[in-house]
Amino acid sequence: MKRKNLRFVIFLILLIGFFAGNLVYPAYFNKGVDFVNEKTSFNLPYFLERPFNLGLDLQGGAHLIYRADLSEIEEGDEESSMRGLRDVIERRVNMFGVREPVVRTEQTGSEHRLIVELAGIKDVSEAIKEIGKTPYLEFKIQRPEEEIKKIKDVIEKVQNATSEEEIKKIENVELAQKNPNFKSTDLTGKYLKSSEVSFDQTTYQPRVLLHFNEEGKELFTELTGDHVDERIAIYIDGNLISAPTVNEKITGGTAQITGDFSIDEAKELARNLNAGALPVPIELISEQTVGPTLGSISLQKSLKAGMYGFLAILIFMILFYKMLGVIAALALLIYVAVVLALFKLIPVTLTLAGIGGFILSIGMAVDANILIFSRMKEELKSKRTFGESVREGFSRAWPSIRDSNFTTLLVAIILFTFGTSFVKGFALTLSIGIVISIFSAVFVTRSLVTVCADTFLEKIKWIWK
Q1: Could you tell me if 404 and 341 lie in one domain?
Q2: Is 77 within a domain?
Q3: In terms of domains, do 364 and 447 share one?
Q4: Which of 31, 100, 131, 252 would you call most buried, defined as having the most Cβ atoms within 10 angstroms of its Cβ?
């Protein structure tokens, strides 16, 4: 590589390290911006502040495992029922105000389980209570216009009231608790046998078919007959899913919901209806709760352990490899900044296991540098020139670096594919770290060493041996 191009590469590497470092910890940069803005007429912007996404073991929360009872579900419908159950639970936990909750299903032998991770949750008992309820499906009919107006007037008066005493004086104040547009009927999810996606034979648009049992068939026939040209709303857990208009009295126990659906939206609606219609009781079999104080202590201990280990590595590299160790230290600092910046940007949910994977990847990055530097020192001792030693050191160390990192990356991919949540976190951070460590060793370290060639540093023999 030409000298001019090499200098540009070094500048680019340092620029990436600068931006990555400030993304990880922007406080010092932003203090500098404040100082400049106070002393001058400039109005410099702050650097982006974005927090790390911490898992429940670091910020506190709950890890809940439920067993799903699919004994009443027909064979072959288990997976669809579990997906519908997951969708309902996701809607519930999103109402808790928890940041990025995790809701997933898994199968252990013949047992189906629902895993719920709520990082930062404050009231775990209330969350357990809400999650454990069976999904509830109900059909509601449209209220008459005068009834809608009456309820909305009461709601408006309650909203405009300035005190609790004033609210108590409002006539029919209990109407404010009701849905102003729809009212409940006797037709609920217990009368719905199943729902499925089909396609209109004329327009080829997806639609959702509803199949009622005998009792539900009678209720639905009566309901549609009494409310032609009106809307019937479908609710799950109090959330409006669909509100189709009844065109005619429907008999036969089968109805259809049409609309501007995509295929995925129609499938999701059918899953939601099945989740409400086909009860899938769940039983809490495991509860792990981490308090915010314990999570904070775990985070502090993890950071201290990582910092001490990282400093020990830097000191060892500098003492044992001298100038090469200094270059390795700079490359590792850039490596750590880039990896942590990626953790923020992706974003990666950091757990204790994830931090362990990241620290292990630092060891892999150091190992690559050691292989390169040891080979370089051997080449220098054999009286090769500095440039030849650099080329030989990297070329001969590369097969070992490639094979060791590839096998570790392969194991990490297997762990991520088949592991549970904490194992996945470890595997993900390790994988990202390995990929960046290869870039760091082959590109960053090599560029920093090569730029020292043909300079006064090359002539100081003892700092390279």
Answers
A1: yes
A2: yes
A3: yes
A4: 131
pLDDT in tens, the chain (465 residues): 566 788 888 899 999 999 999 999 898 888 988 888 888 878 888 888 888 888 877 777 888 999 988 876 778 878 888 888 888 788 777 766 666 678 889 888 889 999 998 887 777 787 787 777 666 778 899 998 899 999 999 888 888 888 888 888 888 888 888 889 999 888 887 788 888 899 988 888 898 888 898 988 999 999 999 989 888 998 877 788 888 888 888 888 888 887 777 888 888 888 777 766 655 788 899 988 877 665 677 777 877 887 888 888 889 889 988 888 899 899 999 999 999 999 999 888 888 888 889 988 988 888 888 888 888 888 888 888 888 888 888 888 999 999 999 999 999 999 988 877 678 889 999 999 999 998 888 789 888 888 888 788 788 878 877
**246 near 227, Cβ under 8 Å?**
yes
Report the predicted TM-score, pTM, of the whole model to 2 decimal places.
0.66
**CB within 8 A of 405, min separation 6: which ones?**
364, 368, 434, 437, 438
Domain membership flag for residue 36: no
Give me the torsion for CA of 10, 11, 12, 18, rounded to 10°.
110
> Of 258, 289, 320, which residue constitutes the final position of a domain?
289
Question: Treating both helix axes as pointing N-terminal to C-terminal, what angle do 292-321 and 352-381 enclose, rounded to 10 degrees?
Answer: 0
